[in-house]
Design brief:
The structure is a single chain. With 183 residues, the chain is α+β, with helices and mostly antiparallel strands. It has a single domain (34-180), classed as Sandwich (Jelly Rolls), CATH 2.60.120.660. The chain has helices spanning 2-19, 76-81, 138-145; strands spanning 39-50, 55-56, 59-60, 63-66, 82-93, 99-106, 112-120, 129-136, 149-156, 169-180. A four-stranded antiparallel beta sheet has the order 1-10-5-8. A hairpin with a 2-residue loop joins strand 2 (55-56) and strand 3 (59-60). The chain is elongated. It starts with a helix and ends with a strand.
Length: 183
């Protein structure tokens, strides 16, 4: 019997508490002041080129190139709201040869808009990691927004001769951090 009385008193107390709530006028114009600043992080490009891919029919190929389409910046939402972008590159060389990697940012007509490069030292038995962050803002950001492709050009520098049985590889990982402002 006691639990029933306690439950009734507790229920009435809760009902009184909820019925005596305060209210205020709502200002729906606050939505006009809404400003979102999301940050997106995404993979950009990746490759893993074994040392033996720099050799064709026993002859070293000093240049290797690839031009993937990068259409993330062509989206109208990104073009309108992107205020800054950081492109991060990490290259790990386990081949006993030095390399350079040229990145050429191309527009829809394959015209070069921007250029950057990396010097990759030869592998000497210890971790050989090269990192670089390229920040795009203001006028430089406009070049990135017009980019539709990035040409990755690998150039092998002089050193020990590679063969089809050479070991090691050249690995690139990259990502983009996009800073947006949506009002």
């Amino acid at each position: 019997m006691k639990p029933l009385v306690f439950n009734r008193i507790f229920g009435i107390l809760i009902l009184v508490l909820f019925s005596a709530s305060c209210t205020s006028d709502l200002d729906f114009n606050q939505v006009n002041d809404l400003k979102l600043e999301p940050i997106f992080i995404s993979n950009l490009a990746y490759f893993d080129v074994p040392a033996n891919q720099f050799v064709t029919n026993g002859v070293e190929q000093p240049i290797n190139a690839d031009t993937p389409t990068i259409d993330i910046f062509n989206d109208a939402f990104f073009k309108d709201n992107l205020v800054k972008a950081e492109l991060f590159f990490e290259i790990n060389n386990t081949i006993k040869r030095a390399y350079t990697i040229d990145l050429v940012y191309l527009d829809k007509n394959n015209q070069a808009l921007y250029f950057t490069n990396f010097a990759i030292p030869a592998y000497t038995g210890v971790e050989n990691l090269v990192t670089k962050t390229d920040v795009f803002a203001n006028a430089k950001l406009d070049l990135l927004k017009r980019t539709t492709k990035i040409a990755f050009i690998l150039r092998m520098l002089p050193g020990p001769i590679l063969s089809e049985s050479s070991t090691g590889s050249l690995k690139l990982r990259s990502s983009v951090t996009a800073y947006l402002v949506v009002e």
